[in-house]
Amino acid sequence: MFDVDGRCYGRRFGGPGGNATGINTALLKERKRQVGVVFSGRQSPGGHNVIWGLYDAIKAHNPNSTLLGFVGGYDLLGRTKDQIRTTEQVNAAMTACQALKLDGLVILGGVTSNMDAAHLAETFSESKCPTKVVGVPVTLNGDLKNQFVETNVGFDTICKVNSQLISNVCTDALSAEKYYYFIRLMGRKASHVALECALQSQSNMVILGEEVAASKLTIFDITKQICDAVQGRAEKDKYHGVILIPEGLVESVPELYALIQEIHGLHLHGASAENIPSQLSPWASALFEFLPPFIRKQLLLHPESDDSAQLSQIEIEKLLAQLVETEMNKRLKEGTYKGKKFNAICHFFGYQARGSLPSKFDCDYAYVLGHVSYHTLAAGLNGYMATITNLKNPVNKWRCGAAPITAMMTVKRWSHGPAAFLVGKPAVHPATVDLRGKAYELLRQNASSFLMDDVYSNPGPLQFDGPGANAKAITLCVEDQDYMGQIKLLQEYLDKVKSIVKPGCSQDVLKAALSAMASVTDVLSMMASPSGGQLPF
Amino acid sequence: MFDVDGRCYGRRFGGPGGNATGINTALLKERKRQVGVVFSGRQSPGGHNVIWGLYDAIKAHNPNSTLLGFVGGYDLLGRTKDQIRTTEQVNAAMTACQALKLDGLVILGGVTSNMDAAHLAETFSESKCPTKVVGVPVTLNGDLKNQFVETNVGFDTICKVNSQLISNVCTDALSAEKYYYFIRLMGRKASHVALECALQSQSNMVILGEEVAASKLTIFDITKQICDAVQGRAEKDKYHGVILIPEGLVESVPELYALIQEIHGLHLHGASAENIPSQLSPWASALFEFLPPFIRKQLLLHPESDDSAQLSQIEIEKLLAQLVETEMNKRLKEGTYKGKKFNAICHFFGYQARGSLPSKFDCDYAYVLGHVSYHTLAAGLNGYMATITNLKNPVNKWRCGAAPITAMMTVKRWSHGPAAFLVGKPAVHPATVDLRGKAYELLRQNASSFLMDDVYSNPGPLQFDGPGANAKAITLCVEDQDYMGQIKLLQEYLDKVKSIVKPGCSQDVLKAALSAMASVTDVLSMMASPSGGQLPF
């Protein structure tokens, strides 16, 4: 445990002051508070800036208030590093909070950590533990996204650092004219990072896990897609290219996913890695034997604490490069491909981006979230997440708030995945790339130009000063994510209708309004019913 | 071929104007000139800025002058991509220069390219071809270093981009506390990039090829060194670390080098990769069989055009990580090591840095070199390299000049390496890290602190604006490299002695001066003799 004494944790770039949260601080009681803060789960750039904002807010309201940080996050909270879930872990956390007389506990993390924060809040409340729990959306994966949360601290940095490196590789590819680069990106199950990086760098191809899952593409379908692209480019005398692969792809490919599930099932039943291959079903065994030895070894790794595969250790980009090479050689031999020999170079951009200094956007976002989490605690809210919306606009237009984490939970009725134990229970689920969203639409519109025309774009290195320092993620800016703003707009429409249709208005107006509103409510009622409006995937 | 019409090739950051070369432009004839420019060999950030400077200089002196660029560099000059060496290639180049009526040909590249430029100049001169040839030191390896050349265009960028990524990995290592990262860096045979990155990032360890070669360390010695470091850190309860490996290390390890030489010899005699293992000598065969399959495959790759190994394809970092893991597991089993299990993650930082936007330093350096190369041509010099010294000082203190490339050539009398065909012939040799130099001394002074104390330093991303934008390479700044400045200083001393010791001075003064100068000339004569002063390695 350490006392957060205001030393520099990362960089702060003129983050807005204490009143930027939009909450009238004069209404808050300025009593002395004891607050704890925990980093839960994996690293993400900008986490320290949340602490900075939180510290500044606490001290601004009472210099005698204290902020305590739990070193390593998990030492105190049990043996697991990614979760606060078992009764044992939850009780350990509660004991610590009570012993330290914490008024509040701020948990920084992604989907799992915030869900755990909600459960912790519930348990504390039931047990009359006075510590209020607040979550902060900090995860480079960018998958803690819903009507209240537009993006996560760290996502902007990761995408900028990776896009720069991808663009550098694009320049190299174009200059050398002889290699295809297969680049795997961090980001867990969802492909948000890969999508954003594809838009920023305008690399030739990106294989989104969500597309693969929606179209149920096998590894051979994907191989064929890439081979056709390579062949198409060869016809234009281009023998280079850059292809982005999200690390989660391996779980999106149906047959690989099924194989991983079987392997994890055997792990759960105590089988050792050496013995698993012989215990696989005939189908899974055939697939397993087909795969190259390096990937077999990686698939046999023990699953993560949340039962998912060790995505960072599975070199899916190498598997694809190898399959594409084999197929291109086959086509060359058969004479269906007449170009030069296909050459691939593989990269994994993971750890070198995760430890980056945070981008200016992430610094500001994190710093303000730190303030917001203080005000959320001070308002006595428990089990809430600190939120900021309208992020695509300048900082003085940001809207601060807090939303109950339970309001972000949904119930999944179908799942055969590692999260199957949550089926039927309300949970915060990682948001996948919305294939009907504007960001994906933008990618689709440009996909053939990206593929064929080498319109590579280099966003350059992260800038802290000068032009470019205020750049924001493309996927953040193209989406209309201002949910609360839109609700406000809707209310304005309703008010307007009310003000038009009042005693004294003409019979025609009343008739038209009645008919229109009857139809609108009909449609909305149907859409809002439990079975309506939602597609079964 | 393209007409260089002043479009933006990379970024220019207020590079000094046309008169920055220090040459009095009024003295130059302003006649119309036709100049060609070639990128020779591998990519390096900043090359386009040389073109920019060259173009600006040419147009400033006569708007009707033309700059022609040879697309791809090698298309015109023969089938090889890295060299202009065979009679066929040289003649093709001469024919092209004559057909295009080129007054000058500017060749951008590293050691090989500049040596080829010198040979080209000689042939042109002998054949009365009027084209003057000028070389420009552009290579990310930083190994074209001598009394005239302090650093190369691209080196600063590569080191900054890599140091940032290494530092990010250091942050990650310190945060996760469970991995050792083995990072291989580009830079060919010499370890300049690795040394600079080690100083910038203050990573735990760096294995310099020059140290390994000087101490004749085997791969097992290196493994033991790393294992001892891991064990030492474990005793302080540290289970993470970052170790830098230059890609050239594989050629510095005596037994691996000998093995590679044998393999290349068999390649030269037409053996196919499949047949080579069975034709190795018993000793080489034993070593080969000991190595893991992935590295065997990589060692069998066909050598580069200059007969050296395909360093970018040989995963020496993985070999070391694997050997260290095996040794640590052995020590654990034997009880000589009592810490936690050793875990390694490997990275290769190559292509993602090489295509980066150039740093501000490289932009300026390249832009001014472009100007200098114009003035060198305009002065009628042939076979010269454009140079700038005093680079560690602000731009207005830089000293521009040109030096005959032949003056940079030395004769190696011993070599059993890939450059053996050059033994006895004058050649420009890649400069290795000077183990008696100040930069290496700085590393040695800090090595134990870097190793044990995790004093990681993150230079942050390349900045184009604001504080940090003017940062320069540490190895550039610690060395006293102002050769021409020092010669000038010496001349001042000589003049001073002359002005003191003249008719009218006392007998004592004359006697003392005579005695001192006799002794100085004695020592210098001995040192300057062919066999003196130089150590046989």
Q: What do these coordinates show?
A:
Two copies of one chain form a homodimer. Chain A is α/β, with parallel strands linked by helices. Chain A is built from 19 helices and 13 strands. In chain A, the strands form three sheets. The first copy, chain A, has a seven-stranded mixed beta sheet with strand order 1-3-2-4-5-10-11, with helices on both faces. A four-stranded parallel beta sheet of chain A has the order 7-8-6-9, with helices on both faces. The first copy, chain A, has a two-stranded antiparallel sheet with strand order 12-13. In chain A, β4, α3 and β5 form a beta-alpha-beta unit. In chain A, α1 crosses α15 and α9 crosses α11. At the A-B interface, α4, β9 and α14 of A face α4, β9 and α14 of B. Chains A, B: It catalyses: beta-D-fructose 6-phosphate + diphosphate = beta-D-fructose 1,6-bisphosphate + phosphate + H(+). Chains A, B: It comes from Cocos nucifera (Coconut palm). Chains A, B: Its cofactor is Mg(2+). Chains A, B: One of its GO terms (molecular function) is diphosphate-fructose-6-phosphate 1-phosphotransferase activity. Chains A, B: One of its GO terms (biological process) is fructose 6-phosphate metabolic process.
Provide a short characterization of the protein structure.
Chains A, B: One of its GO terms (biological process) is response to glucose. Chain A has 537 residues and is of the alpha/beta class.
